[in-house]
Prior knowledge:
The complex is a heterodimer.
Chain A: H1 4-11, H2 24-27, E1 30-36, E2 39-44, H3 54-67, E3 71-76, H4 89-97, E4 100-101, H5 113-118, E5 131-135, E6 143-148, E7 153-158
Parallel strand pairs in A: 2-3, 4-7
Antiparallel strand pairs in A: 1-2, 5-6, 6-7
Chain B: H1 3-23, H2 32-60, H3 64-69, H4 80-83, H5 89-111, H6 116-144, H7 147-165, H8 173-184, H9 201-210, H10 212-216
Helix pairs in contact in B: 1-2, 2-6, 5-6, 5-7, 5-8, 6-7
Amino acid sequence: MVTADEVWAALAEIPDPEIPVISLVDLGVIQDVEVEGSRVRIDFTPTFMGCPALEPMRRAMETRVEKLGAKADIRVVLDDSWSTDRITPEGREKLRLAGFAPPAPRPAGKLELVQIQNGVHRCPYCGSTDTKLENLFGPTPCRSIRYCNACRQPFEQFKTI
Amino acid sequence: MSRRSDLLLSIADDELILGWRNSEWTGIAPFLEEDVAFSSIAQNEIGHARALYELAAAELGTTADELAFDRRPDEYRCAPLVQLRRLEWARTIARHWLYETADEIRLAALKNSDDPEIAGIAAKMDREEAYHRMHAEMWVDRLLSSEDGRSRLSEAVDELWPYALGVLDDELRPELRRRAEERLGRKLPDVEPVSRGVNEAELVQLWEEMTIVRRSAPKGAQW
């Protein structure tokens, strides 16, 4: 019989369909795994609600669990329990190495534009903090666009939500 | 239909139709950053619509796609504000800002709902809407900073104000007025709100375009 640890290990091998350097476990979207006989219940929180990667993630989890000889029962948790603070330290490092600046921590109070404009945002290429916001929005819902004044390179910044 | 489904469909329809209107800037916005911004905002809004339709569909025994695409134009419950087609920048920004301000008030009320599914989905939507609000506020700042921008924004807000009031139920309207007047630093006119219930002719045109694939391939199109 499959164990919860084996399921977690299998889910840690599923890449994010849009940012394949990071796994679903790194991304923090798996909230809980419970095994009952040959059924595996996975509590999954989507990141951004309009993210087209959600369906592929779901299918990948089902296929992976099937390979372990069990059947996945995926419960989609639609509340604010996922935030970018749930991305693991390993996940953040993988993002940075791939050229995505990892998200800044969520502030205790309301997220303000000035924090996004003037907070410390480090360039993933050269490490400089002399960067500026170019666009709150980017090529996918999870990213903003910044520009590094030091190495003159635009880069993608994972949004803080 | 239950009050709950009615509420879910009203908000889902607002988000779907506004998402569609925002996407009309894709490829033709005044500059590239705004092309990306409005396209991304559209994607978020349609994502919210999908989640809300799914919640309603579970109760109504149907699917999100059927709710989004298989109803007649007169069955949509969206506020007339989101139905208007105004491919003009000041009106686009005015609608964006008025809608996001109203939506923040509505989401704050929904986050306190006794229904855990509605409260949860509202809290999740609000995280993303925070970016839409920051974007809208940034534009309001920009327009208010010059004489020309100020007068264009003012004219657009006056035109859309009755529609903006119509996004919210009676009891939430005074809060929208308070916030909008405070931000603009002036009184807004006392007008009869253009409430949801009677749809604009422009919605029919949008519906024709939005549902054409669905209607031409009723059994489902594969991409």
